[in-house]
Design goal:
This protein has 284 residues and is an alpha/beta fold. It folds into three domains: 91 residues, Spore Coat Polysaccharide Biosynthesis Protein SpsA, Chain A (Alpha-Beta Complex), CATH 3.90.550; 125 residues, Alpha-Beta Complex (Spore Coat Polysaccharide Biosynthesis Protein SpsA, Chain A); 60 residues, no CATH class. The chain is built from eleven helices and eight strands. The chain has an eight-stranded mixed β-sheet. α2 links the parallel β2 and β3. 33% of the residues are buried. One of its GO terms (molecular function) is glycosyltransferase activity. InterPro entries: Glyco_trans_2-like, Glycosyltransf_2, Nucleotide-diphossugar_trans.
Amino acid sequence: MAKVSVWLTSYNHGELLRESIESVLNQTYQDFEFIIVDDCSTDHSQEIIKEYVEKYPRIKAILHEKNIGRGGLAEALEDLEGDYVAILHGDDKWNEKKLEAQVAVLDSRPEVAACFTGVTVIDDDGNAYVGNHAYANVFSMENKSRYEWLRYFFDRGNCLCHPSLLIRKEVYTKYQLFASGLNSLPDLSQWIKVCFHAEIYIVPEKLTYFRVHQDESNESGETAGKQKRLFLEEYFLYKEYLKIKDVDTLLKIFPEGAQYVINGQCTIEYALAQLFYEGFSRCS
């Protein structure tokens, strides 16, 4: 039984898919199973996958006959061999040391449920965004306690890169990570749920390459429908914080919430509403 399950999602990534697959096969840590899921690509992605399956029998392919719009990990989770799950998309890639570094963290630190890495953001040609470019340091974050992460997510939103993830498989079901129903913000929902129960850790080395395509970076703006959906999903994300049931947890995440504690008692829903309003006012 492999210790790690690598789950690679593919949809119309063409020749970039080869780079992604090769970056997995070239890992210095080799105790993994490798599943590639293609969501009914209309280019030659499925032919590329079949080529690699024939050459490398360790690769398992799931080729959808119709587009379902999701990777299918939730349905396949209990059939995965690994104790740990790594996610990669067919246009992103890893440094060869990525899994080795992360497995070492999860093996030695049981309090850590999910491990990320530093990230290099690249363009269509594989060139890194550098200097003052908006994408150059978008995922550059220092490690924090889970309470500090919860505060950061509350104030700032997501800053963690999904393709850099290595997570304990049990965490998906233990903390109901698939139960969000969110389309635009599913990653952030998962990180919030994890941090309410366990620590996360970022390997500081940039071991993941995350690709931002030219047509994505030049979008002029969201449609009204997307904006409404995003607003609604943010509402459901903030509701996650209503899971706070005691003053001690509230103050670990929001130290300034002490102003709403009277004689050791606090109406947490009211305190959170005030904290949200204060944060919104600072940003507006």
